[in-house]
Amino acid sequence: MVRIVLRRLTQLSVTLIALMTLVFFWLRSLPGGPVDALLGERATPQTRETLTRALGYDKPIWVQYGRFVENVVTGDFGNSIRTGEPVTAVIGRAFPATVELAIAAIIVAVGLGIPLGYLAARYRGRLLDNATIVVTLIGISIPIFFLGYLLKDWLTQDIHVFPPSGRISTGADNTDVTGFFVLDGLLTRELDASADALWHLVLPALTLATIPLAIIVRITRASVLDVLDEDYIRTADAKGLRDATIRRRHVLRNALLPVVTTIGLQTGALLAGAVLTEKVYNWGGLGTVITDSISGSRDYPVLQALILLAAVVFIVVNLLVDLSYAVIDPRVRVP
Amino acid sequence: MRAPGRQPDRLRALIAAGVLAVMTIGAAGCAESDRDNGADKGAGGGTFILAGAGDPKNFDPIFNDDGESFRPIRQMYDTLITHKPGTAELVGGLAESWSNDPTGKIWTFKLRQGVTFHDGTAFDAAAVCANFDRWSAMKGEAAQSQMIYYADVFGGFAGSPDAVYDNCKAPDAGTAVVTMKKYKGAFPGAFALTAFSIASPAAMKQYGADTVTQSGDSFSYSAFANEHPTGTGAFTFGGWNKATGELTLNKNPNYWGDKAKVDKMIIKVIKDENTRKQELRAGTVQAIDFPAPADRKALAAEGYQVLERPAFNILYLGINQKNNPKLKDLRVRQAIAYALNRAQLVQTKGPGGAAVADQFLPSTVLGYAPDVQKYEYSVDKAKQLLADAGATGLTLNFYYPTEVSRPYMPNPQEIFTVLANDLQAAGIKVNGVPRPWNGGFKDDVQQFGKQDLHILGWTGDYNDPGNFVGTFFGRAKPEFGDQSMTEMFSAIAKADATVDQAAKKTAWEQVNRDMATKWLPAVPIWHAPPALVTTKNVQGLVPSPLTAETFNTVSITK
């Protein structure tokens, strides 16, 4: 276990250094830049020159890189070009929003996906199975953006069941403790704030959960079918074990291994999906920050930090997945 | 948590204690009628919620240059001179009146009496001078680089040979005398720029307003700019919740002018225009800015008030004479103008209220000449002019931006398509070159001048012809590529330097006539008014051509 963690941490360091360099040069190779983005139509040669100098973009690229590495090593990611806030503050504010949304989506995807996948396998070839296959195919195929607008149009415009956007009602004076609005409401006993935040979570979480849900259903179904064909299941059955015991102890537990891997991979995909979902629902998380930083102002400091953060999250999630193997499957613990 | 005007809901509280897995069922169980949009309703008071399109940068006027920052700033601060509501006409703001000497260098402002800043300190001539002196003497390249309008209008900072500002004197508490080193045509219009709003000297000192620090690639601003903006405006700062994108402004009970009719105003940032529309329809906001042009008719049909701002912008087809020698020939440029069916473009692609432009400034601006050459659509004339110029079979690279929507250019791709078709019909071959707005378009067009043709535009900052025509054509620029139009540059400089207003008007009118007949460096396309949309119960909102609305006049009726 310790060896797995150490190996992954080493991989993490190497990945981050490579990524840091790549991102730095990639961003600067893009046409356009923060100076023009900030000045817009009002750019005159003088203002452009002053701003370029003030931002340090007149320095040679290797000087800029050296300064960037020095800052990152000291934990200083700089300030957002757009807002002037420290990058850590921008990300710190957006991170809980995205994590809250991702957790809700993964709960929906796992909570529905594993049982549905299991039932589809168990009733293989029957109506439930066929319906599941068709619905999950639609789930995988439908673009998040489109689904988001569809759900919004239907459930916030045609019938006013859910709010169209945001994390909480406008003007609600909820107490912000952790940035996780649902949790904050519980911590501060402002239960109506939690309910309000949950209310706003429903549509974005459903939208974001669609693809992982569909994939989890299909992987679970395939995995359960594989396990059902294994000799040890037949043996267990022959030994006279109860169906429920076989299902719980032998089928589901063995079938879960690839499902857990999928969940880990989908967590990374959720971050990508969050960009679109957050745009549709004006969510204000990392996805929104990424969009604003690229299309709005070429906010290099924020983009650099975000990409590094995404890499860290992805690697850490995969490490957790690896570790969870050890919990689910004792064979993994054996060197 | 209390949503304004609503009691917490027991059912919702119960749901909160539940698990996310059942949230769909639980949430659906909550009736939609339980939702609150935070808006109190009634003839007076209440909360007015407006959905804006972007985050404000900060709230120190001098460090800003974008509309999303200026919207809240305008509610919290005042300028010496302002615009009559709904027009671009200059009227007194914090100054009841103003005058200039015959040289146009000395500006005397007679100030309103009894005005106080939000921190309770008095507004007087000393405060005015403190603001002017602060701007001029701002230290540090970081801070100076963020003073876009100051650098543009005042030429530079103290010590710079190009600096226009000299000094400000306060002979008495009610009189401020601002002296310039040279006359500049931008005044008095530029005194109405929101960037030149007057802030409380005491608050600026207390919260270190001038402290703009650089960290890595970027800047950070003071507590004054972020947390304690202090002006004289109709609303005071109530907080900027960045997590929810909500800016709260509270009624200033001591406002010198018409006091706000609502108790509170919330500006909710919703960047997606479709989402803004949906929030309006859901009743969670009462006004939205910059609706999609295609939505305006539908919203009006649904009973919303679509408030069109009088147009104060211009979309033009730029012609770069550098890369293709044929474009140096006036006849070729005239052929391009004749080839464009602008009336049809306005009809098919223009936002509601758009009108064909025959010059580069709207009719409300001084110097507009009603008798300029119009270039009515005529393919035959275009073909004839091309033949006369020996430019038959002309091929042009037409750059247009993607990933952008501007009030004057809501749909660049579609505009390009129509214009390109018109040109092709006249026998001009067009190579369309799309470039992302922030990913190459502005660089290629404005810095490197790679294009032959391009579409671009401008929204005016203040009521002065120099802010339109002078901005585009006052000097040689890579965008238009011709260094040789010295006659045009000097005519514009001369008009801009004319102090007497009547003579200035005449000079600019002639510039606009010559622009159409003699120089034609670009073809004006349209003036397209941006709009605001409100629910039926919003009263008193006066749309401004400069998108400079103040919301103290807004009330919410039942």
From TrEMBL, chain A:
Pfam families: BPD_transp_1, BPD_transp_1_N. SUPFAM superfamilies: MetI-like. PROSITE patterns: ABC_TM1. InterPro entries: BPD_transp_1_N, MetI-like, MetI-like_sf. Its main location: membrane. It is found in: Cell membrane. It comes from the Bacteria. The chain crosses the membrane at residues 12-29, 101-121, 133-151, 197-217, 255-276, 305-328. Residues 95-321 form the ABC transmembrane type-1 domain. Keywords: Cell membrane, Membrane, Transmembrane, Transmembrane helix, Transport. The keyword Transport applies. It is a multi-pass membrane protein. Belongs to the binding-protein-dependent transport system permease family. This is Peptide ABC transporter permease. It comes from Actinoplanes palleronii.
UniProtKB/TrEMBL annotation, chain B:
Residues 89-475 form the Solute-binding protein family domain. CDD domains: PBP2_DppA_like (cd08493). The keyword Transport applies. It holds the Pfam family SBP_bac_5. SUPFAM superfamilies: Periplasmic binding protein-like II. Keywords: Signal, Transport. PROSITE patterns: PROKAR_LIPOPROTEIN (PS51257). The keyword Hydrolase does not apply. Belongs to the bacterial solute-binding protein 5 family. This is ABC transporter substrate-binding protein. It comes from Actinoplanes palleronii. The lineage of its organism: Bacteria, Bacillati, Actinomycetota, Actinomycetes, Micromonosporales.
